[in-house]
Amino acid sequence: MSSEPHKKQMTLRERIFQIIFESDTPAAKGFDIALIIMIVTSVIIILLDSVVSLKARYGEAFLIAEWTFTGIFTVEYLLRLYCLNRPWRYARSAYGIIDLLSILPSWLSLLIPGSQAMLVIRVLRVMRLFRVLRLMEFVGEGHLLLEALERSRQKILMFLMTVMSLVIVFGALVYLIEPVEAGFTSIPKSIYWAVVTLTTVGYGDISPITPLGQFISAMMMILGYSILAVPTGVFSAEVMRSIQRNHYSDEACPGCGHEGHERDAKYCRLCGNWLNEEDDDPRRKEIDEEIETLKKEREALDEETKRLEQERDGTTPSHDGSDGPDGHAPPPE
């Protein structure tokens, strides 16, 4: 017997999945590169179509090209749903929503003229470039940053609430100090000035003219430089923790299409689907064996039930053929 593991025959859905969602075969990589070229080209056409002079000259060609790309992207989106075991989970994911939004405006333009301008969202699909060019380490870093941001959100939220309190207090204070001629006509207007000053942007459209107001403005600018280090430090600490424990692979889930699993993961953390599409799920083998055992037990139980019913009805056949209906020898004549 061969020592190599058994590889199951791939079905049509599995082949489509490998081409569309994976990038470890020439066909899959070629598909993704062609898809990105079409995405970029379609976005360029949308941008050029917004130029009046170009639209007047090439408007018909732009329209034909746009509907051609829309048809291709529609088929591609339907194929993505077809080859997944849990298509609606993918449809609700970020990539699924972007894929849908990239084709929806064209179809809506048949009912709502002008809505096709929203097709520029199609450029967001170029994010698949990371996976196509085998730059999964960058995708992994993206997951790492998102996870670090998720863990530090409470601290950052508290920081933002503190900043909002500061700008409200300083805005109201400067509103009381500065005259209306300086531009501080209301507290909301003063709060706008406080935000611009605290973030050290300094548009210059509103500025205090009194010595006390200018002193408060200077203190706010210095404070703005100081508080920038707070969220940066919190986020950096979480990123360092994530670097130490997170490692991601480029495998896409056959069930929902989710990417960015840990390298030693065997099942999808979102839908629980088996990740290695080349081999059978060991859980399925265990379930099949358990089902087979239950079938045998059911057959044995049915046979036992039938025998007991025969004994109850007095129809149990004898072993030597000489017993009567009740299992005793027949009376002599």
TrEMBL record:
Residues 294-326 have a biased composition (Basic and acidic residues). It is a multi-pass membrane protein. Residues 30-237 form the Ion transport domain. InterPro entries: Ion_trans_dom (IPR005821), VG_K_chnl (IPR028325), Volt_channel_dom_sf (IPR027359). Keywords: Ion channel, Ion transport, Membrane, Potassium, Potassium channel, Potassium transport, Transmembrane, Transmembrane helix, Transport, Voltage-gated channel. One of its GO terms (molecular function) is voltage-gated potassium channel activity. One of its GO terms (biological process) is action potential. Gene3D superfamilies: 1.10.287.70, Voltage-gated potassium channels. Chain C. The chain crosses the membrane at residues 33-54, 61-82, 102-124, 156-177, 215-237. Its main location: membrane. Residues 294-333 are annotated as: Disordered. GO terms for cellular component: voltage-gated potassium channel complex. This is pH-gated potassium channel KcsA.
